[in-house]
Specification:
Elements lengths: L2 H22 L3 H15 L21 H38 L10 H9 L12 E6 L7 E6 L7 E4 L10 E11 L5 E7 L15 E5 L3 E4 L2 E5 L9 E7 L4 E6 L2 E2 L48 E2 L5 E7 L3 E6 L18
Antiparallel strand pairs: 1-2, 2-14, 3-13, 4-9, 4-14, 5-6, 5-13, 6-7, 7-8, 9-10, 10-11, 10-12
Helix pairs in contact: 1-2
Length: about 350
C-alpha cells in the first residue's frame, strides 16, 4: 500500500469516527463536527499532495474498493486478536482456580506422622554429600511433595547419593520411584538399596556386596552381578521404582507403574514349611529366574523364582548415575505411578 493510500485511509477513518461521535452525542458543540464530517464524506475528495512525483497517473484516481477491502482485513484481524484474548481470559478464570487447588488431580493424603517422616528424609546429606549433585525439595505441586535431583558430573563419571535415614521396619513394604526429566541416551540412572558400609559415592548401586541396583537401561544388579535384563531403556518422562519387603527380604521392581516381578508376599503361616520352599528359599549365588523367558518383550507381568532376595540387613535407599541428568524423586509425598495400595505411602 502506497503512502498516498495510507493517508487517504487515515483521513476516511478520522471523518467516520468524528461523524459517529457527533451523532452519538448530539449537542450544539458537536453539530459543526457532524456537519463538517458529513461534508467531507459526501463532498469532493480532498486534494492531498503527492508524496512521490514519480507515481503513476493511476494514483490520481482513488481506489475506494481496495481501501475498503484493506480496512475490512484490518478489522477482521483485530477481531481475531480480541477473540483470542477473551478466550484465554475465559479459560484462565474457569480452570486456573481448579489447577491451583488441585481439583481433578490425584492428591496424596498424609497424616501427621507421615508428614513428620517426610520432613525427616534427606537425600545427599552433609555426612555423605556429593558435591556434583543438587537436591531441592519441591512443595509447589498440588498433588504432593517431591525432590528435584540434578547430577552435574561429567559424562561417564559415576556418582551415587544416599539418604540420612534407613528403611523403616515398622512398614511391611518400602518403595520409592524416580521420574526422568532430563537424560542423555548414554547415561544410566540406578535406583537401589545398600547397607551403610556398602555405600560409596563413586560406585553404582548393586556393584558392591550388600547392595542392589535397578538400572534405567533395563537390568538388575545384586552384589556386583548382573541378573536380569528386562528389555527396555527408560528415557524422558519414564519412571523406575524399587521396593523392599522386610518379612521375606524380597525386592520388587516397577517400570512406568507396571510390575516387573511379583511383589513379595508374607512368609507362609505354616511353621512346618521347609527351607526349600519358594517362600523361604535361601539366598544363593545364582539368583537368575528358572521360569522366565528374558528374551521376550515385556508384554506380560511375569514372576521370578521366587522373587529377588537380598541379605538381611539395615538398608538405605540410594540413587546413582553415570553422567549428567535430572530426575524427580518421590518417596511417598505424592501419588506413585505404581498404583498399589500396599506401597502407596512409599518410605513414609
Amino acid at each position: 500500500m502506497s503512502l498516498r493510500r495510507l493517508r487517504l485511509l487515515e483521513y476516511v477513518i478520522q471523518n467516520i469516527s468524528e461523524a459517529a461521535i457527533a451523532k452519538a452525542f448530539p449537542s450544539n458543540d458537536n453539530s459543526h463536527i457532524a456537519n463538517e464530517a458529513n461534508k467531507n464524506l459526501t463532498g469532493p475528495t480532498p486534494v492531498i499532495p503527492d508524496d512521490d512525483d514519480d507515481d503513476d497517473d493511476d494514483d490520481d484516481d482513488v481506489d475506494w474498493e481496495t481501501i475498503i477491502e484493506e480496512f475490512l482485513i484490518l478489522i477482521i484481524l483485530g477481531g481475531i486478536v480480541v477473540l483470542g484474548v477473551l478466550a484465554y481470559l475465559a479459560y484462565k478464570s474457569k480452570y486456573q482456580k481448579m489447577i491451583d487447588q488441585g481439583i481433578g488431580i490425584e492428591v496424596q493424603e498424609l497424616n501427621a506422622n507421615e508428614v513428620s517422616h517426610l520432613n525427616n528424609w534427606e537425600f545427599n546429606p552433609e555426612e555423605w554429600k556429593v558435591a556434583e549433585v543438587d537436591v531441592k525439595h519441591d512443595n509447589t505441586k498440588p498433588e504432593g511433595r517431591y525432590m528435584n535431583i540434578d547430577f552435574r558430573q561429567g559424562r561417564g563419571q559415576k556418582r551415587t547419593i544416599t539418604a540420612n535415614t534407613s528403611l523403616q521396619k515398622y512398614k511391611d513394604n518400602c518403595y520409592f520411584e524416580i521420574e526422568i526429566t532430563a537424560i542423555d541416551s548414554a547415561v544410566d540412572i540406578v535406583v537401589g538399596l545398600c547397607t551403610k558400609d556398602a555405600y560409596h559415592q563413586e560406585t553404582l548401586p548393586g556393584s558392591t556386596f550388600n547392595s542392589v541396583g535397578f538400572h534405567s537401561h533395563g537390568y538388575l544388579t545384586i552384589n556386583g552381578q548382573k541378573l536380569n535384563d528386562y528389555n527396555f531403556k527408560a528415557g524422558f518422562g519414564e519412571t523406575i521404582g524399587i521396593g523392599y519387603n522386610f518379612e521375606n527380604r524380597g525386592v520388587f521392581l516397577f517400570h512406568n507403574g507396571k510390575f516387573l516381578n511379583e511383589p513379595p508376599r508374607s512368609p507362609s503361616p505354616n511353621k512346618n514349611a521347609s527351607l526349600g520352599s519358594p517362600i523361604n528359599k535361601p539366598l544363593t549365588g545364582d539368583l537368575k529366574p528358572s521360569n522366565t523367558n528374558l528374551s521376550s518383550p515385556l508384554t506380560k507381568q511375569f514372576k521370578l523364582d521366587y522373587d529377588i532376595k537380598i541379605q538381611d540387613g539395615i538398608y538405605y535407599p540410594i540413587i546413582g548415575s553415570t553422567g549428567p541428568c535430572a530426575i524427580v524423586l518421590n518417596i511417598g509425598g505424592a501419588p506413585f505411578r505404581a498404583k498399589q495400595k500396599a506401597i502407596c505411602k512409599g518410605l513414609l
